[in-house]
Amino acid sequence: MLKIVLKTYLIIILLVFLSACGGSDSESPPSSTPPTPLQPKDVARFLNHASFGADMETVEKIINSDYSSWLDQQILLPASSHVEYLTNLETTLNLSPDETLQRKHRMEAWFQHTITAPDQLRQRVAFALSEIFVVSEKSNFGDDTYGIANYYDLLVNNAFGNYRDLLEQVTLSPIMGMYLSMLGNEKPNNDKNIRPDENYAREVLQLFSIGLVELNLDGSIKIQGGQSISTYDQNLIKAFAHVFTGWNFNGTTNKTWWQFNRNYNSMEPMTAVPDFHDMNEKILFNDTIITANQTPEQDLTQALDNIFNHPNVGPFISKQLIKKLVTSNPSADYVERISRVFNDNDQGVRGDLAAVVKAVLLDDEALNGAEKNPKSFGKIREPILRAVHLWRTFSASSPNGRLQFNWPDYFFGQAPLAAHHVFNFFSPNYAPPGIVSENNLIAPELEIITENYLTRTNNFFAYSTLWGHTEADENNADDRILIDLASLKPMADDIEALLDYFDILLLGGTMDDDMRAILTSAYQQNSDAPEDERLSNLLFLVMVSPQYIVQR
Fold it and tell me: Under DSSP, is residue 216 helix (H, G, I), strand (E, B) or coil?
């Protein structure tokens, strides 16, 4: 019986997604002018794209200002560091010499920042980047808590920098070096049967920069003779693999090449060791020649410049960021507008991520797509983001002052920097069979919403709402993350006000009449229950509703 119910629930999610993201609409004009005056529901919808979830304080702040000013202020805020949090935590815990911080502490740092950090935009973009420039703890460095946190900080620090700088720092990260085996990659040696490892060369092209096929500026696939055009072949992979030779942990020399010294050097960029680098000529994109006898650093600079200037990078990265932050099926015009910003930020600079992020979030399609294009706009909310949204909106706290949630992947099938493979938790182009794929649409996040995880996620929200608020079960463990229902209590006898509140902060003004009627009936049927129970039950129903799961 449970299996039938869960299958039905999944179908409802698909139908709701289709109602938000199917069919054709007239194209929106290329305007980035928000509606005037700003309405709370519009601001909340904007924040659900630009942060880890709307809260009333930030909504009111933006209403008294404007979107662009808030984005500019966010971009200027200093980055909240995961490594710094861990360092302070280690001091606080007063660990013995034989103790080290563990995975659970890295998770604590992530939830602390996503729920409470002031630089919400930076942290949200960093999470999007972590699903593009993927590394995973499910590797031989999985116990390197500081090293993995340091890689995440790399993404945080570069969220508003230049893509070219981000690409270089990712390439030289020892965590990435271990994950995609560039670290320790050697020049060819026929006598020892050594050939350069092609793993990083392949993935930096396929996943981090240009993709498999040539793209138009609007992200559509170029066609020649009825076929797509491959961006690279095996010869190019080999050439880049030879470029990426001779790099190892920071401080490595000829004599220490095989020692690796992993535990001491995973926090610093990799070091080039010329004796292990292939000095021969290499031919890259557009027949660009890397001449023989250059240093490893010169080869790397020229190769990364060669990738950075490939025409695919703008549409490839722009479309990924749109899909991670705003909508799974953006219009071609939307993608093209953002690609043009990537190619030139209006000041002659290519790859300016701050300008790209602003353009993504201020585009007319992002701001008004839910109203103007109801059949083609929206995305499935990732389960872990739904949890953070709940905790942000309802002022999460813990009796011990720390936000500890050790195993989010048990409930959600995902955790920060813990994907099962380099393609992230879900493919960026995944289309579930049936309704979505039949309408030539994609819904990437549905790839991890299985019956098993749907049950666990709903159980999580039951626990976190029905029993996870500040006045419930005071005798329980002091490490629980609790929500605060205080903002709801003045509206406890006014169901319309309650639904308006939920509609603004959680659904961004997209709650329809059918949903309101169902929730009203459920609340009225529970009228004899204690106030906390009535409020938390209503909140639970909203958090697990298919309408909420689809972000519009």
Answer: coil
Positions of the chain with pLDDT under 70: 1-36, 260-265, 471-477
* Cα 197 from Cα 238, distance rounded (Å): 9
Q: Which residues of 501-518 are buried (b: 16+ CB within 10 A; e: fewer)?
A: bbbbbbbbbbbeeebbee
Question: How many CB atoms within 10 Å of residue 452?
Answer: 10
427 burial level (CB within 10 Å; 0-12, 13-18, 19+): exposed
Q: Phi-psi bin for 348: left (phi > 0), alpha (psi -120 to 50), beta?
A: left
- Helix (H/G/I), strand (E/B), else coil: 21: helix
- Exposure string of 274-294, with b = 16+ CB inside 10 Å and e = fewer, is eebbbbeebebbeeeebeeeb
**Segment holding 227, helix H or strand E:** strand 227-228
8 Å CB contact between 364 and 32: yes
pTM score, whole prediction: 0.94
Contact 549, 382 (CB under 8 A): no
Residue 72: strand, helix, or coil: helix
Contact 157, 164 (CB under 8 A): no
Tokens standing for 533? 């129970």
C-alpha 58 chain-centroid distance: 21
Which tokens sit at 9? Answer: 């629930």
Q: Please, which residues bridge with residue 483 across strands?
A: 469
* Measured distance CA(279)–CA(222) in Å, rounded: 35
Instruction: Evaluate whether 552 touches 18 at the Cβ level (below 8 Å).
Output: no
Nearest 5°: CA angle at 391, between 508 and 100? 140
DSSP-derived letter for residue 34 is P
Output the six-digit token pair for 283.
């031919």
For residues 393 and 58, is the Cβ–Cβ distance under 8 A?
Answer: no
For 209, the token pair is: 């920069």
Tokens 């009333």 -> residue? 56
Q: Three-state SS for 203?
A: helix
Distance CA 453, CA 543 (A): 15
Nearest to 163 by CA among 316, 8, 361: 316
Q: What is the secondary structure of 250-294 as a DSSP string?
A: TT--TTTTTT--HHHHTTS--EE-GGGS--S-EE-GGG-EE-TT-
**Residue 20 pLDDT:** 56
